[in-house]
Amino acid sequence: MVLLIIILLALLVFAPLTYVIMNAAGVDTSDLDAAMESFRFWTKGI
């Protein structure tokens, strides 16, 4: 259970960082934009 929480926290920290790095590198992030929007939508319910 604790491990799951640690993994979730790590994802919350690293996902935006990866996103920013990919944007800076000029990678096409339109698919990621949609994924991040749905991610924000689902995490609002928590």
Q: How would you concisely characterize the structure shown here?
A:
By secondary structure, this protein is mainly alpha-helical.
Number of separate helices: 2
- Class based on secondary structure composition and strand pairing: mainly alpha
What share of residues is helical?
A: over 70%
| Mass-distribution shape | flat
Distance between the termini: 17 Å
**Radius of gyration from the alpha-carbon trace, in angstroms:** 12 Å
Spans where pLDDT lies below 50 across 5 or more residues: none
Largest sheet: none
Q: Write the element-wise H/E pattern from the N-terminal end onward.
A: HH
- How much of the sequence is in beta strands? under 5%
Quantity of strands, as a count: 0
Mean pLDDT metric: 78
Number of domains: 1
General description of the model:
By secondary structure, the chain is mainly α. The protein has one domain. It contains two helices and no strands. The protein has helices spanning 2-24, 30-44. It is flat, with a radius of gyration of 12 Å. The mean pLDDT is 78.
Describe how the helices and strands are arranged:
Blueprint: H1 2-24, H2 30-44
What are the defining features of this structure?
2 helices, mainly alpha, single chain, 83% helix
